From TrEMBL:
Keyword terms: Amino-acid biosynthesis, Cytoplasm, NADP, Oxidoreductase, Proline biosynthesis
Full protein name: Pyrroline-5-carboxylate reductase
Pathway: Amino-acid biosynthesis; L-proline biosynthesis; L-proline from L-glutamate 5-semialdehyde: step 1/1
Entry GO MF terms: pyrroline-5-carboxylate reductase activity
Upper taxonomic lineage: Bacteria, Pseudomonadati, Bacteroidota, Sphingobacteriia, Sphingobacteriales
Domain Pyrroline-5-carboxylate reductase dimerisation, first and last residues per copy: 164-266
Pfam family, one: P5CR_dimer
InterPro entries recorded: 6-PGluconate_DH-like_C_sf (IPR008927), NAD(P)-bd_dom_sf (IPR036291), P5C_Rdtase_cat_N (IPR028939), P5CR_dimer (IPR029036), Pyrroline-COOH_reductase (IPR000304)
Magnesium among keywords: no
Amino acid sequence: MKQFKGNIAILGSGNIGISLAKGLVKANYALPGQISLTRRNIANLSPFAEQGFGVSHDNAAVVAAADIVVLAVLPQQLNQLLDQIRPVVDLNKHLFISVASGVSCADIRNKLGAEAQVIRAMPNTAIAIGQSMTCIATDNASSEYMEEVTRMFETVGSVVKINEDLMTSATALCACGIAFFLRAIRAASQGGVEIGFHADEALKMAVQTAKGAADLLLQMQSHPEQEIDKVTSPKGCTIAGLNEMEHNGFSSSLIKGIKLSATKAGALYTKE
């Protein structure tokens, strides 16, 4: 991979920020010395300092030396962070990447300046193993910057460019969605215990079956119903189980949950 030449600041280095930093280094996108990590309690970042990453609690100082600035704090903390860094923002130099749910590019530009180049990114926690589904969007950033951010997040999974008005929907389907699929796997493993397996066996079997189902769709590029048809024989056990789940609202409850999560995701940020 072509190495990035500048410096990257990751402000608010929690799980997402740290996973991104690790992915960028692992893929040889950047060296540890090019990446600075910030958080209020930097004691938790000491292992990264030992690996050569910059570590600081001074957001403004880190931004001043950076080319790309990743805003990885909670939506509720974002306004305070933007106030801290605004005096050192260089609109001709800085690219801002925000992973804060429910915060528009325009919200950030209203704080930093109308000409600020802002791209929103919504990864999920599978970023920690390089398997994130990250959606990116912008209202004003250049195509070159969009390509750069795509390259960054492809080091930690798959990337889809979407319209910005769909970002809260992406939060529900991809970020919250991790929890929904995990809950389905957990329920399947509990069903396995009910029919005679030990808990550890049932979980292993459910996890691998779920992984196989996802990989089938990815590698065969098929539709779920095509694969379902292959395992549902007339009067068989699979269709009986599927229909029982549907009678109890399996699909509709998942759809309703995704819709509610999207509504909540859009209301996490207050502009005050």
